[in-house]
Protein backbone atom coordinates (compact mmCIF):
# COMPACT_ATOMS: atom_id res chain seq x y z
CA UNK A 1 0.00 0.00 0.00
CA UNK A 2 1.38 3.46 -0.85
CA UNK A 3 2.70 5.18 2.25
CA UNK A 4 0.89 8.42 1.41
CA UNK A 5 -2.56 6.89 0.79
CA UNK A 6 -5.19 9.39 2.01
CA UNK A 7 -7.13 8.13 5.01
CA UNK A 8 -10.49 8.16 3.21
CA UNK A 9 -9.03 6.01 0.43
CA UNK A 10 -7.37 3.64 2.90
CA UNK A 11 -10.64 3.21 4.80
CA UNK A 12 -12.61 2.48 1.65
CA UNK A 13 -9.98 0.07 0.35
CA UNK A 14 -10.30 -1.93 3.56
CA UNK A 15 -14.08 -2.03 3.23
CA UNK A 16 -13.87 -3.40 -0.31
CA UNK A 17 -11.26 -5.95 0.70
CA UNK A 18 -13.47 -7.18 3.56
CA UNK A 19 -16.52 -7.34 1.28
CA UNK A 20 -14.68 -9.43 -1.32
CA UNK A 21 -13.15 -11.72 1.31
CA UNK A 22 -16.58 -12.41 2.82
CA UNK A 23 -18.23 -13.28 -0.53
CA UNK A 24 -17.40 -16.84 -1.61
CA UNK A 25 -18.38 -16.06 -5.21
CA UNK A 26 -15.32 -13.83 -5.50
CA UNK A 27 -11.73 -15.05 -5.91
CA UNK A 28 -9.57 -11.95 -5.68
CA UNK A 29 -9.42 -8.18 -5.41
CA UNK A 30 -6.90 -6.29 -7.55
CA UNK A 31 -6.19 -2.59 -7.91
CA UNK A 32 -4.63 -0.51 -10.68
CA UNK A 33 -4.47 3.11 -11.78
CA UNK A 34 -2.60 5.70 -9.76
CA UNK A 35 -2.41 3.28 -6.82
CA UNK A 36 0.28 1.37 -8.72
CA UNK A 37 1.60 4.09 -11.05
CA UNK A 38 2.08 6.82 -8.43
CA UNK A 39 0.53 10.24 -8.08
CA UNK A 40 -2.43 9.08 -6.00
CA UNK A 41 -3.84 11.95 -3.95
CA UNK A 42 -7.06 12.98 -2.21
CA UNK A 43 -8.74 13.59 -5.59
CA UNK A 44 -7.81 10.20 -7.11
CA UNK A 45 -10.19 7.42 -8.09
CA UNK A 46 -9.72 3.89 -6.83
CA UNK A 47 -9.73 1.39 -9.70
CA UNK A 48 -10.67 -2.06 -8.39
CA UNK A 49 -10.82 -5.29 -10.36
CA UNK A 50 -12.79 -8.09 -8.74
CA UNK A 51 -12.05 -11.61 -9.98
CA UNK A 52 -15.18 -13.77 -9.92
CA UNK A 53 -15.52 -17.56 -9.88
CA UNK A 54 -16.58 -18.76 -13.32
CA UNK A 55 -19.72 -20.50 -12.08
CA UNK A 56 -20.82 -17.38 -10.17
CA UNK A 57 -20.20 -14.79 -12.85
CA UNK A 58 -23.77 -14.48 -14.14
CA UNK A 59 -25.10 -14.14 -10.62
CA UNK A 60 -22.50 -11.55 -9.63
CA UNK A 61 -23.14 -9.46 -12.74
CA UNK A 62 -26.87 -9.54 -12.02
CA UNK A 63 -26.39 -8.46 -8.40
CA UNK A 64 -23.33 -6.20 -8.60
CA UNK A 65 -25.30 -3.08 -7.79
CA UNK A 66 -26.38 -4.75 -4.56
CA UNK A 67 -22.70 -5.49 -3.85
CA UNK A 68 -21.82 -1.83 -4.41
CA UNK A 69 -24.78 -0.70 -2.31
CA UNK A 70 -23.71 -2.92 0.59
CA UNK A 71 -20.56 -0.82 0.91
CA UNK A 72 -21.33 2.20 3.12
CA UNK A 73 -22.45 5.54 1.71
CA UNK A 74 -23.15 4.77 -1.95
CA UNK A 75 -24.41 7.94 -3.63
CA UNK A 76 -25.06 6.46 -7.08
CA UNK A 77 -23.65 4.05 -9.67
CA UNK A 78 -23.96 3.19 -13.35
CA UNK A 79 -22.43 0.71 -15.79
CA UNK A 80 -19.64 1.51 -18.23
CA UNK A 81 -21.12 0.82 -21.65
CA UNK A 82 -20.33 4.40 -22.70
CA UNK A 83 -16.61 3.59 -22.48
CA UNK A 84 -17.03 0.15 -24.06
CA UNK A 85 -16.71 -1.65 -20.72
CA UNK A 86 -20.02 -3.24 -19.62
CA UNK A 87 -18.21 -5.18 -16.87
CA UNK A 88 -17.48 -1.89 -15.12
CA UNK A 89 -19.59 -0.34 -12.38
CA UNK A 90 -18.75 3.33 -11.86
CA UNK A 91 -19.64 4.49 -8.37
CA UNK A 92 -19.69 7.62 -6.26
CA UNK A 93 -19.48 7.26 -2.47
CA UNK A 94 -19.49 9.81 0.28
CA UNK A 95 -19.03 11.81 2.28
CA UNK A 96 -16.21 12.34 1.69
CA UNK A 97 -16.89 11.99 -2.03
CA UNK A 98 -14.88 9.21 -3.66
CA UNK A 99 -15.03 7.96 -7.27
CA UNK A 100 -14.75 4.18 -7.21
CA UNK A 101 -14.52 1.82 -10.19
CA UNK A 102 -15.52 -1.80 -9.66
CA UNK A 103 -14.78 -4.07 -12.64
CA UNK A 104 -15.91 -7.68 -12.42
CA UNK A 105 -13.82 -10.15 -14.45
CA UNK A 106 -13.03 -13.83 -14.83
CA UNK A 107 -9.58 -15.17 -14.05
CA UNK A 108 -9.14 -15.88 -17.78
CA UNK A 109 -9.49 -12.13 -18.41
CA UNK A 110 -6.12 -11.66 -16.70
CA UNK A 111 -4.47 -13.18 -19.77
CA UNK A 112 -4.90 -9.79 -21.51
CA UNK A 113 -4.23 -6.75 -19.33
CA UNK A 114 -3.58 -3.04 -19.76
CA UNK A 115 -1.44 -2.94 -16.60
CA UNK A 116 -0.11 -5.35 -13.97
CA UNK A 117 -2.38 -4.68 -11.04
CA UNK A 118 -1.56 -5.19 -7.39
CA UNK A 119 -3.26 -7.94 -5.40
CA UNK A 120 -5.15 -6.72 -2.34
CA UNK A 121 -6.79 -10.06 -1.56
CA UNK A 122 -6.81 -13.53 -3.12
CA UNK A 123 -8.02 -16.93 -1.99
CA UNK A 124 -5.18 -18.53 -3.97
CA UNK A 125 -2.54 -15.74 -4.01
CA UNK A 126 0.13 -17.74 -5.84
CA UNK A 127 -2.26 -18.73 -8.63
CA UNK A 128 -3.55 -15.20 -9.14
CA UNK A 129 -0.05 -13.72 -9.05
CA UNK A 130 1.18 -16.28 -11.59
CA UNK A 131 -1.75 -15.47 -13.88
CA UNK A 132 -1.08 -11.74 -13.62
CA UNK A 133 2.62 -12.16 -14.36
CA UNK A 134 1.99 -14.51 -17.29
CA UNK A 135 -0.66 -12.28 -18.86
CA UNK A 136 0.10 -10.08 -21.84
CA UNK A 137 0.19 -6.40 -20.88
CA UNK A 138 -0.56 -3.87 -23.62
CA UNK A 139 -2.01 -0.40 -23.36
CA UNK A 140 -4.56 0.20 -26.18
CA UNK A 141 -2.38 2.70 -28.05
CA UNK A 142 -3.57 3.70 -31.51
CA UNK A 143 -1.40 3.64 -34.65
CA UNK A 144 -0.96 6.70 -36.85
CA UNK A 145 -3.61 5.64 -39.34
CA UNK A 146 -6.23 5.47 -36.56
CA UNK A 147 -5.74 9.19 -35.88
CA UNK A 148 -5.51 10.12 -39.55
CA UNK A 149 -8.75 8.43 -40.56
CA UNK A 150 -10.64 10.31 -37.85
CA UNK A 151 -8.92 13.67 -37.37
CA UNK A 152 -10.17 15.44 -40.49
CA UNK A 153 -13.73 14.19 -40.16
CA UNK A 154 -13.91 15.36 -36.56
CA UNK A 155 -12.37 18.74 -37.37
CA UNK A 156 -14.70 19.18 -40.34
CA UNK A 157 -17.61 18.45 -38.02
CA UNK A 158 -16.45 21.28 -35.74
CA UNK A 159 -16.16 23.59 -38.75
CA UNK A 160 -19.69 22.80 -39.94
CA UNK A 161 -21.03 23.68 -36.50
CA UNK A 162 -19.15 26.96 -36.68
CA UNK A 163 -20.78 27.56 -40.07
CA UNK A 164 -24.24 27.00 -38.58
CA UNK A 165 -23.53 29.13 -35.54
CA UNK A 166 -23.79 26.07 -33.26
CA UNK A 167 -20.85 27.25 -31.20
CA UNK A 168 -21.41 25.08 -28.15
CA UNK A 169 -21.43 21.98 -30.35
CA UNK A 170 -18.22 23.10 -32.07
CA UNK A 171 -16.58 23.79 -28.71
CA UNK A 172 -17.63 20.35 -27.50
CA UNK A 173 -16.08 18.71 -30.55
CA UNK A 174 -12.81 20.59 -29.98
CA UNK A 175 -12.68 19.24 -26.43
CA UNK A 176 -13.34 15.74 -27.78
CA UNK A 177 -10.57 16.24 -30.34
CA UNK A 178 -8.09 17.20 -27.62
CA UNK A 179 -9.01 14.10 -25.64
CA UNK A 180 -9.02 11.61 -28.51
CA UNK A 181 -6.29 12.95 -30.81
CA UNK A 182 -4.05 15.75 -29.56
CA UNK A 183 -3.57 14.53 -26.00
CA UNK A 184 -2.67 10.97 -27.04
CA UNK A 185 -0.24 12.31 -29.64
CA UNK A 186 1.51 14.47 -27.05
CA UNK A 187 1.91 11.29 -25.00
CA UNK A 188 3.23 9.47 -28.05
CA UNK A 189 5.78 12.23 -28.65
CA UNK A 190 7.05 11.70 -25.10
CA UNK A 191 7.31 7.93 -25.63
CA UNK A 192 4.48 7.20 -23.19
CA UNK A 193 1.20 5.31 -23.37
CA UNK A 194 -1.62 7.36 -24.85
CA UNK A 195 -3.78 8.57 -21.94
CA UNK A 196 -5.90 11.35 -23.38
CA UNK A 197 -5.16 14.64 -21.68
CA UNK A 198 -4.71 13.17 -18.20
CA UNK A 199 -1.82 14.76 -16.29
CA UNK A 200 -0.49 16.55 -19.37
CA UNK A 201 0.25 19.58 -17.22
CA UNK A 202 1.96 17.68 -14.41
CA UNK A 203 4.11 15.73 -16.87
CA UNK A 204 5.00 18.81 -18.90
CA UNK A 205 4.03 17.11 -22.16
CA UNK A 206 2.72 20.32 -23.72
CA UNK A 207 5.73 22.34 -22.58
CA UNK A 208 4.85 25.41 -24.65
CA UNK A 209 1.18 25.45 -23.66
CA UNK A 210 -0.03 25.07 -27.22
CA UNK A 211 -3.25 23.26 -26.31
CA UNK A 212 -4.57 26.43 -24.70
CA UNK A 213 -5.12 27.82 -28.21
CA UNK A 214 -7.60 24.99 -28.92
CA UNK A 215 -9.91 26.10 -26.09
CA UNK A 216 -12.49 28.40 -27.63
CA UNK A 217 -14.67 31.08 -26.14
CA UNK A 218 -18.30 31.32 -27.17
CA UNK A 219 -17.80 33.53 -30.22
CA UNK A 220 -17.21 32.65 -33.88
CA UNK A 221 -13.75 34.17 -34.14
CA UNK A 222 -12.50 32.24 -31.11
CA UNK A 223 -13.96 28.96 -32.39
CA UNK A 224 -12.36 29.55 -35.79
CA UNK A 225 -9.00 30.17 -34.15
CA UNK A 226 -9.31 27.05 -32.01
CA UNK A 227 -10.06 24.88 -35.04
CA UNK A 228 -7.08 26.31 -36.92
CA UNK A 229 -4.84 25.78 -33.90
CA UNK A 230 -6.04 22.17 -33.69
CA UNK A 231 -5.11 21.68 -37.35
CA UNK A 232 -1.63 23.14 -36.79
CA UNK A 233 -0.92 21.07 -33.68
CA UNK A 234 -2.19 17.88 -35.28
CA UNK A 235 0.01 18.39 -38.36
CA UNK A 236 3.03 18.92 -36.13
CA UNK A 237 2.34 15.85 -33.95
CA UNK A 238 1.48 13.74 -36.99
CA UNK A 239 4.99 14.32 -38.35
CA UNK A 240 6.46 12.18 -35.56
CA UNK A 241 5.11 9.06 -37.26
CA UNK A 242 3.36 9.97 -40.52
CA UNK A 243 0.41 7.77 -41.50
CA UNK A 244 1.07 5.45 -44.44
CA UNK A 245 -1.79 7.04 -46.40
CA UNK A 246 -2.28 10.72 -45.55
CA UNK A 247 -5.79 11.97 -46.23
CA UNK A 248 -6.05 13.45 -49.71
CA UNK A 249 -6.09 17.26 -49.97
CA UNK A 250 -5.93 17.79 -46.20
CA UNK A 251 -5.45 20.16 -44.47
CA UNK A 252 -5.85 22.50 -47.47
CA UNK A 253 -9.43 21.41 -48.18
CA UNK A 254 -10.50 22.04 -44.60
CA UNK A 255 -8.73 25.41 -44.45
CA UNK A 256 -10.56 26.44 -47.64
CA UNK A 257 -13.85 25.36 -46.11
CA UNK A 258 -13.19 27.48 -43.02
CA UNK A 259 -12.29 30.49 -45.13
CA UNK A 260 -15.52 30.09 -47.11
CA UNK A 261 -17.44 29.95 -43.85
CA UNK A 262 -15.82 33.19 -42.77
CA UNK A 263 -16.54 34.84 -46.08
CA UNK A 264 -20.22 33.83 -46.13
CA UNK A 265 -20.91 34.80 -42.54
CA UNK A 266 -18.70 37.90 -42.60
CA UNK A 267 -16.85 36.69 -39.51
CA UNK A 268 -13.80 38.86 -39.00
CA UNK A 269 -10.61 36.74 -39.45
CA UNK A 270 -8.44 36.66 -36.36
Automatic annotation (TrEMBL):
<dbReference type="Pfam" id="PF01909">
    <property type="entry name" value="NTP_transf_2"/>
</dbReference>
<feature type="domain" description="Polymerase nucleotidyl transferase">
    <location>
        <begin position="13"/>
        <end position="58"/>
    </location>
</feature>
<dbReference type="InterPro" id="IPR002934">
    <property type="entry name" value="Polymerase_NTP_transf_dom"/>
</dbReference>
<protein>
    <submittedName>
        <fullName>Nucleotidyltransferase domain-containing protein</fullName>
    </submittedName>
</protein>
<dbReference type="InterPro" id="IPR043519">
    <property type="entry name" value="NT_sf"/>
</dbReference>
